[in-house]
Amino acid sequence: MNLPVSEISLVPTSWKTVDGEGYRYAYGGSTGAAPLILVHGLFGALSNWDNTLRTLQDKYALYVPLLPIYEQTLIEPSLEGLLTYLLRFFEGEKLSSAVWIGNSLGGHLALLVARHYPEKVRALVLTGSSGLFEEGMGSSFPRRSSREYVAERVRFTFYDPRHATPELIEEVYDIVNDNYKALRVLKIARDAQRNFVGGWLPAIQAPTCLIWGLNDTITPVAVAYTFYHLLPHAELHFIDECGHAPMMEQPERFHAVLLRFLQRLQV
Which residues of 145-173 are buried (b: 16+ CB within 10 A; e: fewer)? Predict the structure, then answer.
């Protein structure tokens, strides 16, 4: 589960939102620079990557596709539907081979792009990726009246529970109490649980940087090690005192690792 800030009205002012033909994304950074595609997770959104924009905007072009998880749309609530959406965005913007950076479900989707469309992937950066194991909300939501359970699961995302502000808890509570949004989230979560990536990870040829919270209780350390052993061109970095979203909870350490990786690739 990612930190939830889902409303377009809460997009940081430093991002520019763009509507394409059947897709929507936010953009920030240097025009004409190497493209980095930042993919948020199931309960995530643009603000998850706000620190990344501030850190990398002088050197890279940063794109954040707005995944159609909650909105009224004909896009199927499944990994296949979200993958098709990402490809529509990528091709619609005529992007060159990019570095795909994914958190949680976003990492899972980035891996699917690398598997089926390797020409679109220069490198992967995965943090708390699903696809092997994820201890999140599970395949069902709690009783709708259980606000405290929702608060507990949001705190579970972080090493430091102070990051689970009342506003963020309320965001998740509102999602699970909206029939349409809750049903879409459930369908995507169940599809992700069924979509086990372990069997085909050794075929991924993209250089991969795994940046993991050492205290991640949703995709624990053992998950990171499994990714590392199965991906043939992977490096693994742990960040202490950090949970499931390192780019938010420990942004300075996360971006230090990320920048070293990008510089070695000469991106």
Answer: eebeebbebbbbbbbeeebbeeebbebbb
Establish if 2 belongs to a structural domain. Answer: no
DSSP letter (8 states) at residue 199: T
In a domain, 132, yes or no: yes
Cβ-count burial of 21 within 10 angstroms (0-12 exposed, 13-18 middle, 19+ buried)?
exposed
Cα–Cα distance, 36 to 97 (Å, whole number)? 9
Could you report the per-residue pLDDT of 44-61, keeping only the tens digit for each? Answer: 777 789 899 999 999 999
Structure tokens at 90: 């990528």
Q: How many CA atoms lie within 13 A of 132 on its CB side?
A: 24
Q: Rounded to 5 degrees, what are φ and ψ at 10?
A: -95, 10
What pLDDT score was predicted for residue 47?
78
Name which of 209, 214, 208 is nearest 249 in CA terms.
214
CA distance 173 to 163: 16
CA–CA separation, 168 vs 256, rounded Å? 27
pLDDT digits (tens, 9 = 90+) for 63-106: 999 999 988 888 999 999 999 999 999 999 999 899 999 999 99
Residue 120 lies in a domain: yes
C-alpha 233/C-alpha 141 separation (Å) is: 37
For residue 116, the surrounding DSSP H or E stretch is: helix 105-116
**pLDDT tens readout for residues 160-196:** 998 888 888 888 888 888 889 989 999 999 999 999 9
Domain tally, the chain: 1
118: containing domain: 8-264
With beta carbons less than 8 A apart as the criterion, state whether 69 and 188 touch: yes
pLDDT range class, residue 137, cuts 50, 70, 90: very low
